[in-house]
Amino acid sequence: MDKFWVPEIKEKSDENCPQILVGNKKDMAPDRVVSYESAKALGTMLNVGYFETSARTGEGVEEAI
User: Fold this and answer.
1) Secondary structure of 28-62 in the HEC alphabet?
2) What does the pLDDT look like over 18-55, one tens digit per residue?
3) pLDDT of residue 1
């Protein structure tokens, strides 16, 4: 990941605001750029939940919300 901007988001948001990491376009898995394992590891490192979603199919959207 070329640009690591998440610390800025944590710095500027309210400490009581829950934060999650969401990967979209789950329905396009064969063309993915970031592996599930890498994204999950980033979520773990940032101490936030990680969800994969598809806006096209709706998969994972309810869980993320």
Assistant:
1) HHHHCCCCHHHHHHHHHHHCCEEEECCCCCCCCHH
2) 888 999 999 998 888 889 999 999 889 888 899 999 99
3) 46
Alpha carbon distance 51, 58 (integer Å) = 13
Domain ranges of the chain: 21-64
Place of tokens 């990941």: 1
Surface-to-core class of residue 56, CB atoms within 10 Å of its CB (0-12 exposed, 13-18 middle, 19+ buried): exposed
Q: Please report the pLDDT score of residue 3 as a whole number.
A: 55
Burial class (CB in 10 A: 0-12, 13-18, 19+), 32: middle
